[in-house]
Amino acid sequence: MIIVKDLKRCYGTGDTAVRALKGVSFEISKGEFVAIMGASGSGKTTLLRILALLDDATGGEYTIRGLKVSSLPEAERSYYRLTQVGYIFQDYALISEMSAAENVYLLSLMEGKSKKESYRTALEALEKVGLEGKHDRVPDELSGGEKQRVAIARAIAKKPDILFADEPCANLDTANSKQVLDVFKDLNEKYGQTIVMVTHEPWHIDYVDRVITFKDGSLLSDERKSEGPKEH
Ligand SMILES: Nc1ncnc2c1ncn2[C@@H]1O[C@H](COP(=O)(O)OP(=O)(O)O)[C@@H](O)[C@H]1O
Ligand SMILES: [Mg+2]
């Protein structure tokens, strides 16, 4: 599903240039739940942002479902980013004045879908993350884990090909982290959602199929826990 070939990202130029990705190659199959690990500064966020089309590589190739997205025109990249890619941030990035349901359906409304259809899709997504009944709460009335689950609902409402999450549990205690990881595992197992999650917590490995570890902008190891992707 994803093919990454010799991907490079250099920030700045000359003596001060930082080579955040030094040419990494790997493939991710449909239905895999992959953890990206590695020390702080090893290039994890840089990689995820490029894979989610939030940033451009400075070298190499990136293909999603046979489509060479690294060389698409910007308009098509935007379309792909908005409709096919879900992204979950460490800090949830919710709008504090809006209810859970409104946070989830805002994007769909902006795409021109009807309010009724957007609301229905939002409730469905909130149910998938175990937040049925909490759709009218604002973020301040939700725990950290619940806020992150609203963010996951927002990301999955558009039924993306791939879900990317950059340290989604970084601000959560163990109990809330488990709730969030259980939701990812459920989405992966029940709906075959492909997920790429950055984390630095060794215990999170229990939830995933495969662990790719980065060191100083290069791939250090790539370990699969089960034999190949699951059938769906
Ligand atoms: N916008 C930027 N400008 C310059 N350097 C950056 C920028 N973003 C990240 N870096 C550098 O690139 C390297 C990799 O960063 P990052 O991808 O954020 O690592 P990680 O997510 O693994 O902590 C680090 O040395 C970091 O300082
Ligand atoms: Mg990071």
From TrEMBL:
Any Pfam family the entry gives: ABC_tran
Lineage: superkingdom: Archaea
Listed GO MF terms: ATP binding; ATP hydrolysis activity
Cross-referenced InterPro entries: AAA+_ATPase, ABC_transporter-like_ATP-bd, ABC_transporter-like_CS, MacB-like_ATP-bd, P-loop_NTPase
CDD domains associated with the record: ABC_MJ0796_LolCDE_FtsE
PROSITE patterns: ABC_TRANSPORTER_1, ABC_TRANSPORTER_2
Nucleotide-binding among keywords: yes
Keywords: ATP-binding, Nucleotide-binding, Transport
Domain ABC transporter: 2-232
Entry similarity comment: Belongs to the ABC transporter superfamily.
Alphabetical list of PANTHER family matching this protein: ALPHA-D-RIBOSE 1-METHYLPHOSPHONATE 5-TRIPHOSPHATE SYNTHASE SUBUNIT PHNL, LIPOPROTEIN-RELEASING SYSTEM ATP-BINDING PROTEIN LOLD
Listed name of the protein: ABC transporter
Organism: Methanolobus chelungpuianus
